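Below is how a single chain appears once it has passed through the pipeline. First comes the sequence as given, then the structure the pipeline wrote out for it. We keep one example in the README because the format questions we get most often are answered faster by looking than by reading.
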Amino acid sequence: MSRPVAVYTDVTELDPAPGVALLEQAGFEVRVLDESDPDRVAALAADASVLLIGYSVVDAALLDRLPQLRLVCTQSAGVDTVDLAAAAARGVQVAHVPDGATDDVAGHALAMALALVRGLPFLDRQVREGQWDGTSEPLRRLSSVRLGVVGMGRIGRRLATMALPLFGEVVGHDPVPGTQHWPDGVRSASFDDLLAEVDVLSLHLPLTDGTRSLLGAPQLARMRPDALLVNVSRGGLVDHDALLAALDDGRLAGAALDVLPVEPPPADSVVLRHPRVLLTPHAAYLSPDSAAAYVRTQAENAVAWRDTGRALHVVGPAPGPVASGHPG
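Resulting structure:
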């Protein structure tokens, strides 16, 4: 009997070698393409049962060109590059890595919030330009600052817990009613009330049709004129034209962004040169510990599917019956 084929598409910042070893030990034939072009993936993974992706787009068109595919494993908590409905309709499971970098991303968001509150990126820029004046920025005492966390999943809850001893108050909101494990000491508020109240807003939501451009011009207008924004989730959560307009008009004091709508951004992107924006290159999740966890858990999803017929961390709608052309 032939071995099932597992194919890595784009290999991003992480070394897949430990995952390859785990898959081969479980009986897979493994290929590493280091490729995200759909035509190349379709040609080189036509016999794949499992696709292990970084940022590759897996849409209905690609799924139709992979007749043996049964499982797509992302290398992150996010699954926004996969058409979940199309996968389910074709009997393909989608699995993610839900907890590989919770501490890393929450810590990155906290570091960004602290940097903005104390004006670090702005003061650094001024000093390098020859200005030596600590009063040029409205520096704030942490214990007088109210932090708002939108999205109380694993990362949002972890950030809230980290922030509670530092900030004057932490306020949370989650669009999913009845969110479990709400941290003690975090006040719950509606989205509109939270926007109007907080000094720092940190976003921790997946990108879906319901959350795309969640923070647009009307929402930004509700925020305090000296408020600060942190986004380490997905660039599409924010209307960036509206964000830049709010910064230009002084309706928002600053933003720290680890994610952008297009990554990497074009060289002429306004956000790269904006003096009130702190940027990092989608690096919030990175550390030696998280890298190992991402690679290992991605491969473990595939091994569990081979052993039991179901990956460890399945997301999206339940796969339907295997369609014609997708034999079991």
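The longest strand covers residues 146-150.

See the next section for the split statistics.
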